[in-house]
Design brief:
Chain lengths: 306, 291
């Protein structure tokens, strides 16, 4: 009771309670902002894109390969070819980045001595921080000429180039999340395997990595999300040909690159402008579901390993 | 005997493959840095850094792009750091596990996966058109602020997590309210970690191109307005300048040294920020180990 005379306690209790409540609500509002922003992006893209969708119809968007919004004869808004181009470079990127990424993660988490790990981890972080425009620049100047010499094509700005660059962009994500997954496997699992006479390699391949599989899948999904959404590298290094690709040696144009190139030239509120928002909306949905799936996988795996 | 040898060989071979993959990743980073630095350094001199582009951007320097990147990053930080910090304080200090927290976390994770070009579309539609900020430093900075928000929140939360529970319990046991506890016993110790996250987020924002494409970046904008007029003007930015110089310029081969120089400055800037951030975190961790 003596405490009540203390200066700190001169303010009435109800006032302090109210103040605390207000402060808590203040922080809550900021937390909820993330939800609001996500919903805002969803609805704004939808509102801006919907009229084009309504005017052109599902069929001309998804089942036509012809993207030619500025044609004088007949404008066409088929996104099939740019959608397939996006999926193609993403697939190519994962083909490169997944094996390298998982192997690196396994090395960092399971094989490397602590000292080496201390060095490699910042390297991965710095790689994640390299701007995509710099990677795209090197794609034009270094990877492009290399590819054209290798395959005898006139220039190296094609889907392979894009895939290689996207792999570089997706690697840090895949490595760091797979590494977390592998590190979180309890030592008992490994000890049990080692006690049965398996060596470290067998333990890694047959016990540790399979147990970490869901985390690794989540890592791959997130890497895929990055590759789908990457803009500058594919804009610079894939040659910008909005046609149906037939092979990895073709020049292509992805969904992201199409938005980047064309939005500046469109009339606000026109069909072309709105159709670019439709592409943005589809991109948003694609990455949203990729993230959601990886989220669900991660959650399940955290429950199993607890 | 033979079998054991096979097993050993397998192990050796397997580990070498893993090591090789790691070396490939390290090689990629060092190749990027080496190529840009070795070919870019010869174009960089005092004039290149402090002059504006001249003669249709075939000569001169990149000063306006450096200034533009600085202003935009400043807006980004002012917008995203406080919000990120407050959100992290809610998540780590106040929230109880439940639906709302799960929803917020889901939103944060999804926001970090939204493609940067989609942020660009959103920023264009919201800031440039609806709020009528026009093509400007402000629109671009806010767009990048939204983009970096998930990172700022996550980094701030990580920083708050490193503060030992006993610090909070000590204050609470003395009768301090929750907010008093956070203010006096949690935040001061979490600041270095938050700083690390902030700088890393800033480095990413400074290198982003896609979100600023439609929200205010300009091909050529040599005027350097004073603050706060600069906020509502278009600007040049380092990453966009590099993009222009390497793909859109009418004399691409001739301006290649300028492109390399721009890439050099951009890379050095970002590496510097990364190094500072990693260094702060390193010191911070060491300090905690001693406590």
């Amino acid at each position: 009771m003596e405490l009540k005379k203390n200066k700190l306690h001169q303010t009435p209790v109800w006032w302090r309670r109210l103040k605390e409540q207000v402060i808590e609500k203040f922080f809550l509002v900021h937390g909820m902002l993330a939800v609001l922003i996500l919903m805002g992006i969803f609805s704004l893209l939808f509102i801006e894109g919907f009229p084009a969708f309504k005017a052109l119809g599902l069929k001309s968007f998804f089942f036509s390969t012809k993207w030619n919004p500025t044609s004088f004869v007949q404008e066409s808004y088929g996104i099939l070819s740019i959608l397939i181009s996006t999926l193609m470079v993403t697939f190519g990127a994962l083909l490169i980045a997944v094996p390298i990424g998982i192997a690196t993660a396994a090395y960092i988490a399971d094989v490397a001595p602590p000292r080496v790990r201390e060095v490699i981890k910042p390297v991965i972080e710095v790689l994640a921080g390299i701007p995509s425009v710099v990677v795209g620049f090197l794609g034009i100047i270094v990877v492009g000429p290399l590819l054209s010499r290798l395959f005898g094509t006139s220039n190296g700005l094609n889907a392979i180039n894009g895939s290689i660059l996207l792999a570089v962009m997706a690697l840090p994500t895949i490595i760091s999340i797979s590494e977390d997954a592998i590190l979180s496997i309890p030592q008992e699992y490994k000890n049990a395997s080692l006690a049965l006479g398996a060596n470290k390699w067998q333990t890694l391949i047959r016990v540790t990595i399979p147990s970490a599989m869901s985390g690794i899948i989540a890592a791959v999904m997130l890497g895929m999300g990055r590759a789908i959404g990457e803009t500058m590298t594919v804009l610079m290094a894939t040659g910008n040909a909005p046609a149906m690709p037939h092979s990895f040696l073709d020049s292509i144009r992805t969904m992201t690159a199409t938005i980047a190139i064309e939005l500046g030239e469109t009339v606000q509120g026109g069909i072309h402008y709105r159709s670019l928002f439709v592409i943005g909306f589809i991109l948003f949905l694609m990455t949203f579901f990729v993230n959601l799936i990886s989220d669900l996988v991660l959650e399940k795996y955290q429950k199993v390993n607890r | 005997m033979m079998k054991i040898n096979w097993k050993k060989m397998n192990e050796k071979l397997g580990f070498s493959v893993l090591r090789l993959a790691t070396l490939v990743v390290i090689f990629i980073l060092f190749f990027i840095i080496y190529d840009i630095v070795s070919k870019g350094i010869s174009s960089v001199n005092w004039e290149f850094v402090t002059d504006k582009p001249r003669k249709g951007m075939t000569e001169g320097g990149i000063w306006p792009a450096i200034v533009g990147t600085f202003w935009v990053s400043l807006v980004t930080v002012i917008f995203s750091v406080p919000i990120g910090m407050f959100a992290a304080i809610y998540l780590n200090e106040y929230a109880h596990q439940g639906r709302i927290v799960r929803l917020i976390r889901l939103a944060i994770r999804n926001l970090s996966g939204v493609p940067s070009i989609v942020y660009g579309l959103f920023g264009f539609s919201l800031f440039v058109l609806m709020l009528n900020f026009g093509l400007s430093v402000l629109s671009s900075g806010l767009t990048l602020g939204l983009l970096t928000l998930p990172w700022t929140i996550t980094a701030s939360e990580e920083a708050l997590k490193t503060v030992p529970m006993s610090y909070r319990e000590g204050a609470l046991a003395l009768g301090a309210t929750k907010w008093q506890t956070i203010r006096s016993n949690v935040l001061p110790y979490a600041v270095p970690g938050m700083l690390t996250g902030t700088i890393l987020g800033l480095a990413r924002a400074a290198g982003e191109t896609a979100p600023i494409l439609f929200t205010g970046v300009a091909f050529f904008w040599p005027i350097l307005p004073k603050f706060p007029d600069a906020l509502f003007k278009q600007f040049m930015a380092l990453p966009y300048h590099l993009f222009i110089m390497s793909t859109q310029h009418h004399e691409i081969v001739k301006v290649r040294p300028l492109a390399y120089g721009t890439a050099f400055i951009l890379i050095v800037l970002i590496l510097l920020m990364n190094t500072v951030a990693i260094w702060i975190r390193y010191r911070f961790r060491k300090k905690y180990k001693r406590i």
